[in-house]
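Help: why these numbers?

___
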Amino acid sequence: MGPMPRFTSHDGTILAYHPRGEGEPLICLPGGAGRASSYPGDLGGLAVHRRLVLLDNRGTGESDEPEDPATYRRDLAALTPAATYAEQPGAGHFPWVDDPRRLVDRVTAWQTAT
């Protein structure tokens, strides 16, 4: 298996990602120092509804070292005009395991509304 696809973020940091599924993209950010390979399971079945972009956080996997990891999640969403930044309150590091129905419902509701 070859290297993961990469893109250059707004501050020049090279970030690696692994795409799964088909359709409108959904950028998935693992918590903390996570990377794409840390996602267990199939994210509650989201790949059936969306093209998942599983990101290696800065400084993990095949992504470059971080410069400001505390703010880049919102910055990443701001770079995409149609993006909506969302968190799942009460979820731990794996919201698709903690409450998969809630996660899938929220994402597919957003997809329908756009």
User: Anything to note?
Assistant: Residues 31 and 93 are 6 Å apart (CA to CA). Residues 6-113 form a domain with the Rossmann fold fold (CATH 3.40.50). The mean pLDDT is 80. The helical segments are 72-78, 95-98, 100-113.
